[in-house]
Amino acid sequence: MTPEDGSALVRRISDEDRENAAVVLNRAVADGRLTWTEHAERLEQVYAARTAGELSPVLADLHQPAPVDRTPKRLSAVFSKVIRAPEGTSPLRVRAVFGAAIIDLRSARPGEEIDLNASSAFGKVVLTVPVDAVVIDEGGAVFGKRHVSAPASGSSGAVIRLSGRSVFGKLVVHRG
Question: pTM of whole model > 0.90?
């Protein structure tokens, strides 16, 4: 979008544009460039914005990284054990079939949101998250187990959303 092109400012924005703006704000608060109060105010403006012209002033004083790649990073452990510590907030898709996938997410910073689809069939997925992380498990189990250890009281760390299914397998979340 160029300043000379006035038509770009009246362009209607999409939900993806709003989500990318929210990621910029999340990174800014995680880096200490915004307070939580400023973050909340600006986030409200982002979700209320309908045009690029309404969105631009909310982000004008913040460094804007390249658009977020929402393509899931994939990791499979089939008859094997895989250990990884992925970086970034891109969605993750982890699958363990007769194997073990051990994922270390302790590098997640406060304000980050991580979507993780963790599925196991006769295998296990073990996640290690920061002590202050908020873990939301929206997945299910069929003859399996999904266990998320209790969060620290008043948690304000990264938000990790889990989905997926454990079929004759298990998913365990450790803090630390």
Answer: no
